[in-house]
Design a protein that fits this description.
A hairpin with a 5-residue loop joins strand 5 and strand 6. The protein has 3 helices and 9 strands. The N terminus is likely disordered. The strands form 2 sheets. The chain has a 7-stranded mixed beta sheet with strand order 6-5-8-3-2-1-9. A two-stranded antiparallel ribbon has the order 4-7. The protein starts with a helix and ends in a 5-residue tail after the last strand. The chain is α+β, with helices and mostly antiparallel strands and 166 residues long. The relative contact order is 0.18. Helices cover 24% and strands 32% of the residues.
């Protein structure tokens, strides 16, 4: 084997071992990623109480991103935007959209007293059409599309969560 052939073989072996090490490091890092923290939330409807474990979107950046790009929604999961708006203050009229959101959602607009003001069911993925709350709200809950109807959740139902949770 010539010197050049030996050098090429050594380089290929070194790259192969290096790539394997990177793959091992990346697979190890992926397995150690912490799960997203969730917040227990309940909705009391005419047919019972429904429990969810939702992600919390508290900052302006978290609220701007919402569930964009997500395809991993769970039937008992979702995202709570509280306080809404993120900077706090009095309830405001909310307008959400589905830009960059590949899964249909049910968007529940929640008054300051915890009752549901409006439910926008099965919103259209990727739509940039505004979805208004219709009145000032203090929180917004996004669920997997169709869940509100499936569970019999309606406008006026009571939504509760630990407002002191971090």
């Amino acid at each position: 084997m010539t010197f050049v052939a030996k050098a090429v073989l050594a380089a290929v072996l070194a790259l192969g071992v290096g790539a394997g090490g990177v793959a091992y490091m990346n697979s190890r890092a992926d397995s150690d990623v912490a799960a997203v923290a969730t917040l227990p939330l309940t909705i009391k409807s005419a047919n019972g109480t429904h429990a969810f474990k939702v992600e919390s979107a508290k900052t302006e950046a978290e609220q701007a991103r919402g569930l964009m790009f997500r395809t991993d929604l769970k039937p008992d999961g979702g995202m709570l935007f509280w306080p809404y708006p993120a900077k706090g203050g009095e309830p405001v009229v909310a307008n959400f959209w589905m830009k960059n959101t590949p899964s249909p959602l049910d968007i529940l607009y929640i008054r300051a007293d915890g009752t549901i003001a409006r439910i926008a069911e099965n919103t259209v993925p990727f739509s940039e059409q505004p979805i208004p709350s219709g009145e000032p709200v203090g929180a917004v809950l996004e669920l997997m599309g169709g869940r509100a109807s499936e569970l019999g959740i309606a406008e006026g139902d009571l939504v509760t969560w630990d407002k002191g949770a971090k």
